[in-house]
Amino acid sequence: MENNFMLTDDLLWDYADGFLEGDEKLRVDAYLRQHPEQQARLEAIMAEKRAFSGLTLEKPNAGFAQQVIAAWAAEQAPAKALQPLKAKGHDWILWGIAAAFGLMIAVPFLMAPTAAPAEFAFRVPEEYIPQIQVPTFDWVGFISSAWLRNTVLLTMAFMGLKILDKYLQVRNVRLSGH
Predict the structure, then answer these.
(1) I want to staple 136 with a disulfide (CB 3.0 to 4.6 A). Which of 19, 116, 157, 161 is the partner?
(2) Which long-range contacts (CB under 8 A, 24 or more apart) does 158-162 make?
(3) Confidence band of 164 (pLDDT split at 50, 70, 90)
(4) Does the pTM of the predicted model rise above 0.70?
(5) Are 100 and 158 spatial neighbours (Cβ–Cβ below 8 Å)?
(6) Across-strand partners of 113?
(7) Whether the Cβ atoms of residue 93 and residue 158 lie closer than 8 Å to each other
(8) Quick one: average pLDDT of 9-22?
(9) pLDDT tens, 52-96?
(10) Other residues' Cβ atoms within 10 Å of the Cβ of residue 106
C-alpha cells in the first residue's frame, strides 16, 4: 500500500457509485481493508444512497426553465429602474464646484501676497544683491475675508442643489414606476 494515498470524500463517493476502475479501485479496496473507520464511512454513504434511491423524481413541467428565467427577469426589472441615472446636462454643476475649489486654491497665491511688515522683512546682504523685500502671504486676512466665506457658501449651495437634484431624480423614477 502506498504511504501517500489519501482517501477523500469525493473518491469514496465515486467508489460507492461504481465510477472507479482499475488501479484506483484496487487502491481504495486495499485502503478500506486496512482502515475500518473508512469502511464505516463507506457504509454510511451506501445507506444514504439507498435512502435517496427510494425517492421518485418529479419530471419538470414543460417550459419550467423559461418560467424561471421570466420570473428572474421580472424581479430584476425594478432594480434596473432604480439604478442611478446618468443625468445629461447636469455635469456643469460638478464642473462649477471643481472650478470654485480651484479658484479658492489659486486666487490666494495670485492676488493676496503683500509686502512683509518691517519687523519680518528678509534682507539679503547688499554685497550679493541690492536690498529686496520678500513678499509674504497674509493667511489670517485671507481666511477671515468675505471672499472666502462667500466662495464656501456658494460652493455649499451648489453641492446642496446637486444633492437635491439627485434626490428628485430618484424620487421621480420611483413614482413613475419605470
Answers:
(1) 116
(2) 158/93, 158/96, 158/97, 158/100, 159/97, 161/93, 162/90, 162/93, 162/94, 162/97
(3) confident
(4) no
(5) yes
(6) 137
(7) yes
(8) 87
(9) 888 887 877 788 888 888 888 888 776 665 555 555 566 777 788
(10) 10
Nearest residue to 158 (alpha-carbon basis) of 83, 82, 86, 104: 104
> In this structure, what C-alpha cell is assigned to residue 79?
432594480
Whole-number pLDDT of residue 17: 86
The SS3 of residue 55 is: coil
Amino acid of residue 2: E
Rounded CA-CA distance 70/98 in Å is 45
Residue (of 108, 92, 105) closest to 158 by Cα position: 92
C-alpha cell at 108: 490666494
Query: How far is residue 43's CA from residue 48's CA, in Å, rounded to a whole number?
Result: 9
Strands (E), the chain: 113-114, 136-137
Instruction: Give 116's pLDDT tier (boundaries 50, 70, 90).
Output: very low
Q: What is the DSSP letter of 116?
A: P
pLDDT digits (tens, 9 = 90+) for 40-62: 888 988 898 888 888 887 877 78
Mean pLDDT of all residues in 119-142: 65
| Amino acid (1-letter code) at residue 73 | A
CA distance 16 to 10: 10
Calculated CA dihedral for residues 35, 36, 41, 45, nearest 10 degrees = 110
